[in-house]
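Bug report (template v2)

What were you trying to do?
Predict the complex of my protein with glutathione.

What happened?
Run completed; filing so the output is reviewed.

Input:
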Amino acid sequence: MTERLILHEYSQSGNCYKIRLTAALLGVPIERREYDIMQGETRTPEFLATVNPNGRIPVLQAGARFIPESNAACFYLAEGGALVPADRFERADMLRWMFFEQYHHEPNIATLRFWLAFVGAEQLDPLQRAMLPGKKQAGEAALKLMDDHLARQSFFVGESLSLADVALYAYTHVAGDGGFDLADYPAVTSWLRRIEATPGYVPMSA
Ligand SMILES: N[C@@H](CCC(=O)N[C@@H](CS)C(=O)NCC(=O)O)C(=O)O
């Protein structure tokens, strides 16, 4: 990749970490620009006009162009390489797990992490408080589905690491912050360790 790559991010966000992990696994250098989402730094008129009209990070900047949505940014980096299956069915299966991550996993597991570990249980408004049990139940269901799948195979798509694993790893490995007990999901726990043993792996804190 010849263009300059800049990740607009909040480094404690799993969605941002996905992109750093993808880049690290591929050996692609990216620059990083930090925004404090707790202070509304992605909601300024300048950010909305130039980086993302949706007011959120991560956004991967490739040259003069911007790619919001974490999984789209991961795909931009990885297309044509080892993290995207060459087989058409497997490529669609990878996307299936990435859409699952955005619809069934992240809105429950990442949201509970954000509410409980970043905002704080006492600061939640009544609506958020009322949503806690439903999000916990839906997050548990997502982890159970993942555990059943990973009891049968080493990675989400076949036997090798793909973007599906990277996308799901980002918030699963810190699910404890949202009140989930990963000891209940042994196949998921083994899969986390396999990813961490992959050459090029970097932790979220790096
Ligand atoms: N579907 C988006 C989610 C982006 C998102 O929700 N970003 C959050 C942090 S993880 C954010 O920017 N929040 C700040 C705000 O909404 O003001 C993705 O995968 O990139």
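What did the reviewer find?
Residues 10, 13, 15, 37, 42-43, 55-58, 69-70, 102 surround glutathione (CB under 6 Å). The chain has a mean pLDDT of 97.
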